[in-house]
Design goal:
The protein has 14 helices and no strands. By secondary structure, it is mostly helical. It is globular, with a radius of gyration of 23 Å.
């Protein structure tokens, strides 16, 4: 059971400061909506893609500010293997178990567990919990997603629990030499190098450290960045490297030594974990290629 003390980070708001923050977010959204109105033709189309991304980011910040506790509650339900079922009628469903299920769901502990245990400190989320969490969120946001997209996504995710892979989650490209998992781990590797450079380590030494952990040569790691830019796109790679660099520049020595936060993602702990995942992924890929089936 969670302690009764102040352990709900999203509740630690100064009310007047939050009101100002929320008002500012709403003003930004209104401004972006006005600047991108199609009635202004080509002038309002300029920079619209970036404005759309910014608007959705701000909208997410607004949800976090006002309903972050609800997101944590959904995560807590998923962690406890509970299914969020939205009320679709004004009357309580006529089922003998409904009142009991509602009392099970109506518990502050779900919010606490969701915030403090699911994916904490950048650690990987249990895939089953993650899937249930995503389904809960899809059910909870009916007005955000297109109805067809929401129903198809829910069906595809739920079918996984019954051993069935629907078309939405089926691989579109088979037999690739390097799969998505390996590409992502290679991207993490070059981000680990960039982080170490930002911390003041010479690039060759950073390459040696990362290459040694991943079990490859320095030259191999050097070839990853240009290939990743081709496979994943220049913007995606540049974005991930920029984040790693920013974390390295702004990180304090105490944060660097801590066994949480940046250390989990970029320090020795992160390096060893991602290197382990890479070796496992490579071994799995080789085993599949060697299999006669």
């Amino acid at each position: 059971m969670p302690p009764d003390t102040d352990v709900y980070p999203r509740r630690k708001w100064n009310q007047s400061e939050r009101d100002k923050y929320v008002a500012d977010l709403i003003d930004q959204l209104r401004d972006l909506e006005r600047k991108t109105n199609p009635k202004d033709g080509a002038q309002s189309a300029k920079g619209k893609n970036l404005a759309a991304l910014k608007s959705l980011k701000i909208a997410g910040d607004l949800v976090n500010a006002l309903a972050g506790w609800a997101l944590d509650h959904q995560a807590g339900l998923a962690l406890k293997d509970l299914k969020f079922v939205p009320l679709s009628t004004t009357k309580t469903p006529e089922h003998p178990d409904y009142p009991n299920s509602r009392s099970t769901d109506d518990d502050h502990r779900h919010e606490w567990y969701g915030r403090n245990w699911v994916g904490r400190d950048g650690l990987p989320i249990n895939p089953i919990v993650a899937r249930k969490w995503l389904m809960n969120l899809l059910r909870a946001f009916p007005s955000i997603f297109d109805l067809g997209l929401r129903l198809d996504a829910l069906a595809a995710l739920e079918a996984c629990d019954y051993g069935e892979i629907l078309p939405m989650l089926r691989a579109t490209k088979e037999g690739r030499k390097i799969n998505w998992t390996i590409l992502q781990l290679q991207l993490k590797a070059i981000a680990l190098v960039k982080y170490r450079e930002a911390r003041g380590i010479k690039k060759f030494k950073a390459l040696q450290e990362v290459a040694g952990a991943f079990g490859v040569s320095v030259n191999t790691v050097r070839t990853w960045e240009p290939r990743l830019r081709t496979e994943l796109g220049h913007i995606e790679v540049a974005h991930r490297l920029a984040i790693a660099k920013e974390v390295g520049i702004n990180e304090s020595d105490d944060q660097h030594r801590a066994s949480s936060g940046p250390e989990v993602l970029y320090g020795q702990e992160g390096l060893q974990e991602f290197a382990r995942q890479y070796r496992v992924a490579i071994a799995s890929k080789r085993a599949k290629r060697a299999s006669p089936l």
